[in-house]
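lol so apparently i was supposed to do this last week
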Amino acid sequence: MSKFQPVINFIKQAYPKKDLVLLHEPTFRGNEKEYLANTIDSTFVSSVGPYVDKFETMMAGLTKTEKAVAVVNGTAAIQVALRLACVKQGDEVITQALTFVATANAILYNGATPIFLDVDIDTMGLSATAVENFLSEYGELREDGCYNKLSGKRIAACLPMHTFGFPVHLDELLAVCNKWNIPLVEDAAESIGSEYKGKPTGSYGLLGAFSFNGNKVVTSGGGGAIVSNNVQLGIAAKHITTTAKVPHAYEYAHDALGYNFRMPNLNAALACAQLEQLSGFLDDKRLLAEEYQSFFKRQGIQFRTELPDTKANYWLMCVELENKIERDLFLKTTNEAKVMTRPIWQLMFRLPMYAHCQKDAQKNATYLEERIVNIPSSVR
Ligand SMILES: *Cc1c(COP(=O)(O)O)cnc(C)c1O
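anyway here it is w/ pyridoxal-5'-phosphate bound
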């Protein structure tokens, strides 16, 4: 018997009806069909409609922000959030190498370059210490912002990502960013419903970006949202994601280079029905996390739980294996037994597009890259 057979048995009994236990599948048990049928009956299936407005109101309420804007996906949400934080061609953006590729891509889409800094072991997200260490070596404060002494480029933004829904140390990061006059934008794609010191992730930065892809906690099929407590930025987000059209009874006038990044009403209908169930989804995931925690404790395997002062949404749950050999064995035996598990992402600077980017020693990111594995986390 393989040493991980008890893990396989435990996960299979946690999902008794599944032949193949997936990592994260969507759950549709609310008003999804009714709302989708409404959009078809109304013919408003495309880029304007009541569900888009409803979704934006729900998202602003849920994230306790002044304004939320629905967009076509999470990647576009990050891209536009960075642009609105004044990230321009030739700038640099500080982020973590331990992330999904979309975080880094959104920087590149703006003509900017990522600087990859280390994560904290406890949050698996961007480390305030790493950012402070980097800036005290390379940062230079000028009138129009912070510059990188090595590249001569402006460091236009800092983009932490809340890995698997575990919030980064936001207060510490904000303190460093404020000191160096760098706006903070949150990649909250994985962290809907997560909180840091009683407030939602995504609401701490100048702007925050969410994803509603099919594998996230709630899905619109595909979709994203930009949130901000700055109303002007919220209005600008709506404007440039809807072709920057100037309102007029019949003329086509556009006052900036805008995007067609609108979320269709059809997707917004699904998103509304899903958001209505969010708190139930979160309760269900928390229950599974508790079951996993006590099981893995008995197994002597480290299961990741939320840190004090934070609430995790437990989007993708994960264990930390002792080393890479153990991790590879865990991945092989679970997947062969039809229990889907996946390693954490490859660090971004290993990818050809990002191989040349400036980075620090990446001690923690490398440690986690070799050990963290995601385990089935769907709502039951
Ligand atoms: C899912 C995800 C995104 C991208 O969202 P899409 O809606 O798939 O474009 C961005 N960043 C992170 C960290 C994600 O996990």
